[in-house]
Amino acid sequence: MNDTNYAQLAKEAIRHATGIEPSASPLLTSLGYHLTIHSQPRHERLMRLGFEATVAKLPFSIRYPITNLMKKIRNPKSTVPIASMKDLFGYNLVRDLIKNDIPKFFYEGSKGVIVLTHDVDNLVGWNMLPEALKDLRSRHLPATFNFLTRADYPLDYTVLDRLATAGHEIGLHGSTHDIALAFRSEASILQTLRRGRTALQERPSGFRSPAFSVSHALFKALDGAGFVYDSSIQVASTFYHSTSFPFPYRLPGFDLIELPLTFNDDMVVRDAPLSDQGSLRVFSELLDDTLAVGGVFVANIHPHNLVGRMGLYESILELVQEKKSAGTRVTTAGQIVDIFGSRLAQ
């Protein structure tokens, strides 16, 4: 894509998110560039492929400490790898454009949107689902749960049916937790995705890649497998290429909507192990800044990280419930994508 294409992509994304046509600005080119697909650097792709070839089949009790060590090597100072929204040029571009008039363009009058997602990576996480579901049910909060189909936990279709009946969404997270999935051949990825949809009884319309690996091959395969949206690209990560744009948008060149991830609990639980209070502060600041521009705040909670930290989860849900009472919409990823998709079709 050239600069003109990048600027046009950014204009369309802002218009679809806010209903406002932005005027010409050099920042549009930068935003458009950040909205396109950028895979992990070559050295990280090779590292992930090597990890999968040597470590991935080990039991979770061994693999988990190894991945913790890898995170420590990547982040030796244990800094929080999330940028402040106010430091993101895409966010500031929208904030300056709307001024104090928070858009309610496609949220049916709501003051922004909160989407709670849960990536179920392992048996420990699967076993934490009853507690998480009890807390969600007591607060009348819907959520999205992304499952692996060949992990160390057996898919219990009775549980999946209960989730769907309770208003939750079932998404796909892959077959195994293959952190190099996006770096395999398109044919191999497509086979994994199709088998995953079959295993989940064709329910998933959305996908999140394990460890957020992305590539053009992955998105071509998602298109081919019939997925409607992806939520693997982040908004404010300092580790990965990020959009700096807390709104859904159509991925250029694909029939897919990207729902960027705003908060990933690993970044405050494992990358920079904060206290519950510190973790909640990071969550709250990102949430408030996102809602200040009428954005879509997508949070990811790994149920295995809830062991010994249910108090943090309950505090997060209490904050979300407060925002809901104040006029923020809380919904599943699939529902907000449907609303956004209908807006695109107009």
Automatic annotation (TrEMBL):
Which biological process, per GO, is one annotated for this protein?
carbohydrate metabolic process
Report the GO molecular function annotations.
hydrolase activity, acting on carbon-nitrogen (but not peptide) bonds
Residue ranges of domain NodB homology in the record: 109-227
Highest taxon listed in the record's lineage: Bacteria
Q: What is this protein called?
A: NodB homology domain-containing protein
